[in-house]
Task: inverse folding
């Protein structure tokens, strides 16, 4: 801790804010934002028990750290490559939050990290489909993005293809504000969800007052367990198909919904499209999603249908 006393009521400090940004940028953070603890109280959308001040009463600011999930790897989902990317991203985020908390504590600013996922295993999430703290809410209050109809944060830079972690601190830091809503309400996330976990009618899709889709957490968790058993969790299809994000321009993938629709009905063996062939090659290696001896007319759609039937049989 050094010789500095822990500060519980430090004044708002722009220099500390700048130093935090430098610290995190140098260590690989792609997005950084600050949310005031008061944002949760003023907004009221989050139940009290899930707010930072309830979880750690010393909290005055929440530092939110984001790390991108490169689109071409996300497009292979479900695959072991997507799984490894997800795990690597989470490990790096947890490491950044841990290191930042210790760095702040050494400077007399009481701080704690909140882990990225916050649940022990997918079976726990099926029985108890909530975690103690939602980093997406923190990212929204910090001004890093807006909540899309798929219940994820849409950022200007990466759309929903970004993971977040948070640090609670007693330091009073300059806070961001919620940004404009980037969701174009195309409905792709609703259309492509393999278990219909997102429900929004066409009328609601046109109604911008219907901010998010009705989210069936249980169905999503059951699908995640099925993917876990095949070694290719998480699903991430709703983040794959979302057209929002500057990363699509970087990778030349601006208009892709038709391409994604064709993928579902394309044979997993010898698909005519080169990208579909590439994705299926990756899916067949390192996981149990696609076997080596599948019939020649097998498609991703037929595989997903079989998994859905398997899930329904267990319920």
Result:
């Amino acid at each position: 801790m050094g010789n500095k006393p822990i500060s519980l009521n430090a004044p708002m400090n722009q220099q500390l804010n700048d130093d935090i940004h430098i610290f995190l940028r140098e260590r690989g953070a792609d997005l950084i934002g600050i949310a005031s603890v008061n944002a949760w109280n003023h907004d009221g959308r989050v139940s009290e028990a899930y707010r930072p001040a309830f979880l750690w009463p010393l909290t005055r600011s929440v530092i939110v750290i984001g790390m991108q999930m490169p689109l071409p790897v996300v497009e292979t989902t479900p695959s072991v490559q997507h799984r490894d990317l997800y795990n690597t991203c989470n490990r790096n985020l947890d490491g950044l939050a841990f290191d930042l908390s210790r760095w702040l504590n050494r400077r007399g600013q009481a701080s704690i990290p909140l882990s990225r996922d916050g649940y022990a295993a997918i079976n726990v999430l099926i029985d108890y489909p909530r975690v103690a703290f939602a980093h997406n809410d923190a990212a929204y209050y910090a001004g890093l993005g807006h909540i899309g109809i798929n219940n994820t944060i849409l950022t200007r830079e990466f759309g929903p293809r970004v993971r977040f972690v948070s640090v609670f601190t007693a330091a009073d830091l300059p806070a961001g504000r919620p940004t404009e809503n980037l969701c174009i309400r195309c409905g792709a996330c609703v259309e492509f969800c393999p278990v219909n976990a997102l429900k929004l009618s066409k009328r609601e899709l046109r109604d911008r007052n219907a901010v998010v889709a009705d989210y069936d957490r249980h169905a999503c968790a059951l699908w995640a367990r099925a993917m876990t058993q095949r070694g290719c969790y998480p699903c991430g299809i709703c983040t794959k198909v979302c057209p929002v994000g500057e990363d699509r321009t970087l990778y030349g993938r601006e208009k892709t919904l038709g391409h994604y629709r064709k993928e579902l009905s394309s044979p997993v063996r010898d698909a005519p499209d080169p990208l579909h062939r590439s994705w299926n090659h990756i899916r067949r290696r390192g996981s149990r999603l696609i076997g080596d001896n599948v019939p020649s007319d097998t498609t991703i759609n037929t595989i997903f249908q079989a998994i859905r039937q398997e899930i329904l049989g267990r319920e």
Remarks:
- The chain has a mean pLDDT of 92.
- The chain has two domains: 14-169, 188-310.
